[in-house]
Write a structure and sequence with these properties.
Strand content: 5-15%
Distance between the termini: 34 Å
Number of strands: 11
Order of helices and strands: HEHHHEEHHEHEHEHEHEHEEE
Number of domains: 1
Strand order of the largest sheet: 6-5-4-7-11-9
Largest sheet: 6 strands, mixed
Mean pLDDT: 93
Oligomer: single chain
């Protein structure tokens, strides 16, 4: 109870206690610039990041300045003018072309199809993180079937120009007040229920709309919606899918589902796994204008009480989830993300603990 009270109090003041660090005048050759310390121990990193980093303080958080080295980080700013999202040009050698990884996308789609077809007690098809939590069997099947269809669609995307990012990631917000609508039992690809009062879903409406706007702006070819049924019967990922497809009009076959995440750090991990599964290196995270946007900055008051994304990740899994950095302007709700913490280091460019 004491911890709950402490975090609740922190939440009230966090919006005023956040730091967005200024871009350095020249690229940095340490963890902030995407480089690992010379002594970084890959063998132990994914179980004991602190030991692997050997005391290198700059390696112990997500802080990066990818905009100072766009050619290696593939950092792409996204500009907003009202409801229009316009990304900058894609740096040479960057961007995501689904047709280049078509075989991998089809292979991942077939994996989801096997999961959708297996019986509840059949462990023959291993479950990815985004489906490995305790889910009713019909919920897991529905999510797997939906993701398979989306991946088949993505595999047939023949866009001539590369997308700046491989995925757009949108994380849900749950609350007990969400219960009591048809969305309590709604599944993706069901008929869209009518007469759902959107006012009770608060910031989820903004988050879903921003994901759809980024998709419309050709920021990425697919949107990942993430969140489980943590605070009510409503699966947050399904709520976001409903908002994006039924209420905003985004194509349902451009949405990937993660119905298992229970906190922002598991949102990042699970969406990062999906990013890697489709052979992407960078994602664009969008959120609302309140607490989560500040939570994703370089430093927040949550660091003081051990509640930052980095601290929770190290405590729960023993490793960091990668790097992220605000990429939207003039708004502060869009973030470049990569699961490759040392994205500029030739030795470790393809190293990540997010599987």
């Amino acid at each position: 109870m004491l911890r709950f009270v402490r975090y609740a109090g922190v939440g009230l003041v966090a919006a005023g206690c956040t730091v967005h660090a200024e871009t350095p005048s020249s690229p940095l050759h340490d963890a902030r610039g995407g480089f690992a310390p010379e002594s970084f121990d890959v063998a132990s990193a994914c179980g004991d990041w602190r030991r692997a980093s050997r005391g290198d303080r700059l390696s112990m958080n997500h802080t990066s300045f990818p905009e100072s080295d766009r050619a290696r980080s593939c950092f792409v700013p996204v500009h907003y003018d009202g409801e229009t999202a316009t990304p900058d040009a894609v740096p040479e050698g960057c961007g995501y072309r689904p047709h280049d990884v078509r075989a991998d996308l089809e292979r991942e789609a077939e994996r989801y199809e096997r999961i959708a077809q297996q019986s509840p007690n059949d462990g023959s098809a291993s479950l990815p993180e985004e489906l490995a939590c305790k889910l009713p069997d019909h919920v897991r099947r529905a999510a797997a079937e939906h993701n398979a269809r989306t991946l088949h669609t993505l595999a047939n995307d023949d866009s001539s120009a590369p997308y700046p990012y491989a995925t757009i990631e949108v994380f849900g917000y749950g609350h007990p007040s969400h219960a009591g609508t048809p969305l309590d039992t709604w599944l993706p690809d069901d008929a869209c229920p009518a007469h759902v009062d959107l006012r009770r879903f608060s910031v989820n409406v903004d988050r879903a709309a921003r994901g759809a706007l980024a998709f419309a702006g050709h920021v990425a070819p697919v949107v990942i919606v993430s969140g489980g049924a943590v605070h009510s019967p409503v699966v947050e990922a399904f709520l976001l899918d409903y908002l994006a497809t039924c209420r905003i009009g985004m194509p349902s076959t451009r949405v990937l589902l993660d119905p298992c995440a229970d906190h922002t750090h598991t949102n990042v991990r699970n969406a990062g796994r999906l990013l890697r599964a489709i052979d992407g290196r960078t994602a664009y995270i969008v959120t609302d204008d309140t607490l989560q946007a500040t939570y994703l900055q370089e430093w927040t008051v949550f660091n003081l009480v051990g509640g930052s994304i980095d601290q929770r990740s190290l405590r729960d899994w023993g490793y960091l989830l990668g790097s992220w950095r605000q990429a939207s302007s003039p708004a502060a709700f869009g973030f470049w993300y990569t699961p490759y913490r040392f994205w500029a280091d030739a030795r470790l460019r393809d190293f990540s603990c997010v599987r």
